[in-house]
Amino acid sequence: MTSDTNEKINAQVIAVFPDKVKIVVEDLEHFKVAEESLKVGSYLKIADNENAVLIAVIENFQISVGEGVQNYIIEAFPLGVLRNGKFERGGDSLAIPPKEVVPATIEDIKKIYEDTVNPVESFTFSHLASNKEVAVPINGNKFFNKHIAIVGSTGSGKSHTLAKIIQKATSEKHEDFHLNNSHVIVFDIHSEYKTAFPNANYIDISNLILPYWMLNSEELEEFFLDTEANDHNQRNIFKESIIFDRKQKFTGDEDDKQKIHLDSPILFDINEVLNFSKFKNTEQIDTGEVYASGDKKGQPKLNQGSLYGKLTNFINRLENKINDKRLDFFLGEKSKNITFEETLQNLLGFTPKKESNITIIDLSGVPFEVLSITVSLISRLIFEYGYIYKKLRCIENPEEKINNDAPILLVYEEAHKYVPNSDLSKYRSSKLSIERIAKEGRKYGVTLLLASQRPSEISETIFAQCNNFIAMRLTNPVDQAYVRKLLPDSLGSLIDKMTSFKQGEALLVGESIILPSIVQIEPCSIAPSSNDIPYWELWKNKWKDIDISKIKTEWHK
């Protein structure tokens, strides 16, 4: 700014509030930086008499007309104070009255962002929505070692944002090597991310193997029992038969054998559980007496067992699950033969000669009724892996400061589908598993990234644990109110802008960034396949014949 320009500018602060600064400007045409006109989202510098500069973002313009004079009223939201070259969040420490108001230059804004993040820790995937020349770096450590939430309505760019973050994270390297040490597991509910990550460890219903015998007691009961029916008979027989079969198959020490319980991750055969239940359902007990006469003369007298005929519903339910081909990934022969080690290797991307930074678990083919259990088991295994890994590292070196030197990010796409804000029993296991990670996972090198178009439907316990938020366009008032409740009060009306964000725009806020910023997410190197179907274009094409018989064949597999 030249002195001539400064003379033309007559801008002064007329009111200061905790979350708002009002400024009157006589000539808006000259109140700009070079040829760049100011607009909503532009930044201002407001200096006081104590060598402090308030950085504020313009929220709106108003025109005040009186006695032939037209003034412009600018309302700006204070972001923080630049004092002695250091930026501090909050704007309530500015001395009154402020003495100068000028537009912030690009260099000013760049300096705020660049000077607040150590280059070694810097992670960038966006730029300011108001100026694409200003990259917005965040602290990568504070971003990934805390839980993250990405929220946005359909079409807001949520999937692209998620893909961009993972692509950038898995490609950054200190040296020249094939794979970096990032480990990301994506729960892909709509089969969107295979295209974005062609080199990922891709798991779908065709190659997913999850041993049912690794389920814990809660998951076993939710999967196999009618938990809504408070049937103690089926629960007791189920528990008894599992423990008995585990002990039969156990080949270790006798003392260890006696310690086996329902939560022990040891193989048992579900068919043996079925056979035992059938036996108990038809059991007849010899009384020790015989019939003295009649057609049964000489035959032993039998009494019905205590559970005779009482397990029929349970047996039918069990048989239906065992015979359901859709559940082969859980109950098939492969699930009985896969080892504990192989299961973890597959999930973590450590399969020999096929190592990968990213594991995509495509859940689109998993029957909805077992979706929660599937997510629960995988999540719990990863958490317990982190816990045991930390324990071993601390045993080897009691002075170890890093709990997990290969930390894991679990990405839950459309998280409201399996951790809803609901008390229904069918979601109990997945909620318990993921809530545990949300509360304790960071201590063991396991963090969460939740992505959802309906944040109000996510378990509040889980969502409230997130420290970094990427809030994209939200149109549902309930979701807006929910996100507003969880975000800091100091954001003021920045939250209100979520309704008008363009595709790819977002409010970025949290411990990883120096100040809340409205950003534009950079394009993906390869986009996920989440584009909307072009109905109108397709409908205008020639009629397409569809082979229904092929669909039937695949359906009945």
UniProtKB/TrEMBL annotation:
<keyword id="KW-0547">Nucleotide-binding</keyword>
<dbReference type="InterPro" id="IPR008571">
    <property type="entry name" value="HerA-like"/>
</dbReference>
<feature type="domain" description="Helicase HerA central">
    <location>
        <begin position="126"/>
        <end position="382"/>
    </location>
</feature>
<keyword id="KW-0067">ATP-binding</keyword>
<dbReference type="GO" id="GO:0005524">
    <property type="term" value="F:ATP binding"/>
</dbReference>
<dbReference type="InterPro" id="IPR002789">
    <property type="entry name" value="HerA_central"/>
</dbReference>
<dbReference type="InterPro" id="IPR027417">
    <property type="entry name" value="P-loop_NTPase"/>
</dbReference>
<dbReference type="Pfam" id="PF01935">
    <property type="entry name" value="DUF87"/>
</dbReference>
<protein>
    <submittedName>
        <fullName>ATP-binding protein</fullName>
    </submittedName>
</protein>
